[in-house]
Amino acid sequence: MVSREDAIDLALKAVSDTTRRSILGLLQGRQLSVLEIAEEFPMSRPAISKHLKILKEAGLVLETPAGRQRLYGLERSPFELLATWLAGFHGGRPPGRSQIARPRFRPQPRRAAGAVEQWRVW
User: Fold this and answer.
1) Under 8 Å CB-to-CB from 103, ≥6 apart: which residues?
2) Which residues pair with 65 in a beta bridge?
3) Taking a C-beta distance cutoff of 8 angstroms, is the pair 95, 83 a contact?
4) Which H or E run includes 23?
5) Residue 2 has pLDDT above 90, yes or no
6) pTM of structure
7) What is the CA radius of gyration of the chain?
8) Average pLDDT in the 87-110 region?
9) In CATH, what number does 4-79 get?
């Protein structure tokens, strides 16, 4: 059994790649074969299969046999787990502009005439 933390780690690693995020976008609301997915990308079917394997190992994608093909679709529960985990960082509400932390800058006093003004972040 995979722990909650391990599941989050696997999911975050899987979605860290642009191609895998694009594949997940293609699979929203439908099931597709490797060939159908590969047609959307400028790479080989074996490369797409490797991406699908990573997504499957992370539990984000389900593989369903359909005759000689295998269809891939989204598994919703890991996305719900990620959404719950991310919601904990902003109290369950999308962050507004006022909630985004910004660094504050303050000039240091000049030490000598003609010195370059320095800035400090704290």
Assistant:
1) 121
2) 70
3) no
4) helix 18-26
5) no
6) 0.70
7) 23
8) 60
9) 1.10.10.10
